[in-house]
Write a structure and sequence with these properties.
Blueprint lengths: L8 E4 L2 E4 L4 E4 L2 E3 L3 H12 L5 E2 H9 L9 H13 L9 E4 L3 E4 L4
Antiparallel strand pairs: 1-2, 2-3, 3-4, 5-7, 6-7
Helix pairs in contact: 1-2, 1-3
Length: about 110
């Protein structure tokens, strides 16, 4: 049970994630995300401004450990990045820290 007053929606910039029904929207328009892409975006937004390692993101979104030449999480982040695009002012939303992981850039 979710305590009363607990939001079931994550919002950042013009992106809204409805956690109850796993739907996403950008500027009010539905965003078609796979279940894995939804988890990737949810995780990045929940920890906006914090670096999330590829290991952690793989564990959360794919429910498995990252292996040596595993590029699956990078592909999912790439797909999310394409689907959400840049901010209305043209600045990126997701930053890659080479060899470390990813983070959602805080607005403003």
């Amino acid at each position: 049970l979710i305590p009363e007053g607990t939001s079931r929606t994550l919002q950042i910039d013009d992106i809204a994630l409805n956690l109850a029904n796993r739907e996403a929207a950008i500027s009010g328009e539905p965003l078609e995300l796979t279940a894995t892409e939804f988890l990737v975006l949810k995780t990045l937004i929940e920890k906006a401004g914090e670096l999330i390692s590829r290991d952690d993101l793989t564990q959360i979104a794919l429910n498995r450990k990252l292996t040596l030449y595993d590029r699956a999480i990078d592909m999912h982040v790439s797909n999310v990045r394409k689907k959400i695009g840049t901010r209305p002012d043209g600045t990126p939303r997701i930053k890659t820290v080479r060899g470390s992981g990813y983070f959602y850039i805080l607005p403003g």
